[in-house]
Every structure is written in C-alpha cells, then in structure tokens.
Write a structure and sequence with these properties.
alpha+beta, Lipocalin, 156 residues
C-alpha cells in the first residue's frame, strides 16, 4: 500500500513538473514591442508617392520639383525638407528645416512648414507604418472652395 502511494505521489509530482515546464512564460515572449508613432515617423527619409483630391488621383498634376522632395523627421521634433534633384525656384535653398509634433492624441501631425500649395500645417494621420505615411488635409482650390487631399509618402 505504501509502495502504491509512493508511486502515485511520484507520478503526480512528475506530471506537475512536466506540465509546469510546458506553460508559456510571458516574460520571455519574443514578440517585439509595437513602435510608437514617433519611432515610425523618425526612421528614414520620406518621399512623395501619390496624392488624391476628392478621391481623384492628382499625382500627375503636381510639379516634378515637388514630387522629388524628401522629408526627414527626427525623434526630437525637428526635421529637414530636401528639394531633391529639381527645385521649383532656383533661388530656394537645397534644404530647409522645420519643426513638428503630434497633436490630438497623435491623430494630427503638425509641421511648421506648408508642404503643398494651398495646404496647411496640419495633416490628419490616416496611416503610419514602417514603410508608409498617409496624411489628409483640406486644401484651398479655386475661389474659396476646399477639398480633402490625401497624400502618401513612402520610405526612400
């Protein structure tokens, strides 16, 4: 009887140790932490990809000298616009500094420079990832009218 009790106790102990060893340890989870919006925007240089106004692709209507510009954001809230290979105005500097910050619970990107004619300093964040930055803003078109422009930037 004592021998059966010892075997049973040993079996229960062994099973407990075995199942305990199989339990997933959340402290050692290899899932990388999700990057913050500041980390996403400040990694790499962004280049124009496409633009729509009122749902219509208007990329072809933008000047080449605007589409080759690049933007670099730093995590400290500063940035640089580079005019790219072609300048719209030959007298413009090759690079211009700007400041930036997120507003409204990181749903708005505020920049100190206006990136597009008729645009504003604020972009509503539509999407931000490691490879894509999509923002929308109302732009002035024609005689006092405005429409929503959606601009997509990708890493260069």
């Amino acid at each position: 009887m004592k021998n059966t009790f010892t075997r049973t106790s040993t079996l229960i102990l062994a099973c407990s140790l075995l199942f305990g060893a199989c339990k997933k340890n959340n402290d050692k989870d290899n899932t990388p932490a999700q990057k913050t919006k500041t980390e996403l925007i400040s990694t790499g240089t962004w280049k124009f990809s496409s633009a729509t106004v009122g749902g219509t692709n208007v990329s072809a209507f933008l000047q080449s000298c605007q589409k080759d510009n690049t933007m670099t954001f730093t995590a400290t809230g500063t940035g640089t616009v580079d005019e790219g290979a072609t300048k719209c105005n030959g007298g413009d500097p090759q690079t211009s500094p700007f400041t930036w910050n997120f507003a409204s619970n990181e749903t708005i990107l505020h920049v100190s420079a206006v990136f597009f004619t008729g645009g504003s300093n604020d972009f509503n964040i539509v999407e931000i990832s490691e490879t894509k930055l999509v923002g929308s803003q109302n732009i002035e078109v024609g005689a006092g009218g405005s429409q929503t422009a959606v601009v997509t930037f990708v890493h260069q």
